[in-house]
Amino acid sequence: MLGNIPSRKKIRYPIGERLLAYLSYYNRISKLPLQYSDLLRYEATIPVMGQNDKDTGWESAFYHESAQTEIYNGLKLIYALLKTGGDISVMDHLTIARIDFCTFGNSKPFRIRIINRLNDNYDHFYVKISDASRVYGLELESLLSPNFFYYLIDGETLIEEHIAGIPGDDFITRRLHTDLFNQIRIIKEFVKFNERCFARLLGDMRSYNYVVDITPDIEGNQYRMRAIDFDQQTFEGSKRFYQPQYFKENNPIITLGINNIGPESVKQYQLEERSLISERIRTEQDRVNSLFRIFRMDEISTKDKTRQLGNELFQLHGDVAFKQAVTMGEITQLHLEKILNKPVINWQ
Q1: Residue 88, class by beta-carbon neighbours within 10 Å (0-12 exposed, 13-18 middle, 19+ buried)?
Q2: What backbone torsions phi and psi does residue 337 show, to the nearest 5 degrees?
Q3: HSE, side-chain direction, 13 A CA sphere, residue 129
Q4: Residue-range definition of the domain harbouring residue 91
Q5: How far, in Å, CA of 341 to CA of 343, rounded?
Q6: CB–CB of 201/331 below 8 Å?
Q7: pLDDT tens per residue across span 153-197
Q8: Closest Cα partner for 98 from 68, 128, 70?
Q9: Domain assignment present for 257
Q10: Does any domain span residue 12?
């Protein structure tokens, strides 16, 4: 079980000029019709209740009629920018069904529910406050995981796509106890997910911070675990914070694994994921080079936390370079190279 409690209020680190230039080059910057602060103009909220009248921590926001039209039209345009590259013709068929505000967490996001009137299909996206740590998390997710992630930034506003899947805590409660064949596949995916998070130092992957995407297969199902919260990209000082296996919320999966697979299988799955990460770096080497050269120079955590993580990873890897590192970006690169046993940056 993880003993180190994350910071109650994570420090927000602004996006620096070098990172902004990188984001602009890779088309992550867009002029938006609304800012995060505009959505704070709501006049009232009511709680969004879940199953069994459980408080979800979200509240639906309501706006004065004079502001609602402007906000709704702006949100439809943002959706068009996110999904269709700005083709505004889709806006004629879109309706904003609900704007929800999350009352907990660091990013205090707004969740926008949008409906296509042509087929009644719905989708979501999120409006958050931009943060350098979160952006590095999003970029590393796109580069090092099997999942490309769509997002846009304008000043202090961050737009994120919705990641479809069953919330991890609901999955553990309702879907974990299936037949043994599927359980082995679930365990395998958790081992690989754990390896992805630890390799790139994405923290706080409790069961409610990831979703499980289920794909029916010829026999049984295939499972993909996807992070949905990137606030804790290389911020905390404990190395266990970056290993989902140590969070008590994930214990049912850990117990399932202990009872059904051995250390040899775990090692095989870890090596498979490391090989895939290496291949992703190879195919995106120029972009990885650009990102890590900026990341190495950026401050996205406190000196005390940086020193703690460097010391703990020195104990793991035995390389004094971890104790000498002064930024979380340096530590992330060093750790990733140790995990993969090969350089991350091609300095030539």
Answers
A1: exposed
A2: -65, -35
A3: 14
A4: 17-161
A5: 7
A6: yes
A7: 999 999 999 999 999 999 999 989 887 888 999 999 999 999 999
A8: 68
A9: yes
A10: no
Overall size of the chain counted in residues: 348
- The crossing angle, in degrees rounded to 10, of helices 263-283 and 285-295 is 100
74 within 8 A of 67, measured Cβ to Cβ: no
Phi-psi region of 261 (alpha: psi -120 to 50; beta: other; left: phi over 0): beta
For the stretch 264-318, pLDDT in tens is 999 999 999 999 999 999 999 999 999 999 999 999 999 999 999 999 999 999 9
What pairs with residue 115 in β-bridges?
Answer: 95, 122
The count of C-alpha atoms lying within 13 angstroms of the C-alpha of 273, restricted to the half-sphere facing its C-beta, is 24
Domain end call among 161, 180, 201:
161
Determine if residue 318 is left, alpha or beta; phi over 0 gives left, psi from -120 to 50 gives alpha, anything else beta: left
Is 67's pLDDT higher than 60? Answer: yes
Alpha helices in the chain (DSSP H): 17-25, 65-84, 132-144, 168-174, 180-200, 251-260, 263-283, 285-295, 303-317, 321-324, 328-340
Structure tokens at 245: 């296996």
Distance CA 286, CA 268 (A): 29
Q: How far is the C-alpha of 113 from the C-alpha of 98, rounded, in Å?
A: 5
Residue 170 sits in the same domain as residue 275: yes
| 113-118 long-range contacts, CB within 8 A, separation 24+ | 114/75, 114/76, 114/79, 117/93, 118/93
User: Do the beta carbons of residue 239 and residue 268 sit within 8 Å?
Assistant: no
Q: 73 falls in which pLDDT band (50, 70, 90)? A: very high
Q: Which residues contact 234 (CB under 8 A, 6 or more apart)?
A: 133, 136, 201, 202, 203, 300, 301, 309, 328, 329, 331, 332
Phi then psi for residue 221, to 5 deg, are -125, 155
Residue type at 87 in one-letter notation: D
Q: How many CB atoms lie within 10 A of CB 98?
A: 16
CA distance 301 to 233: 10
Do 157 and 67 lie in one domain? The reply is: yes
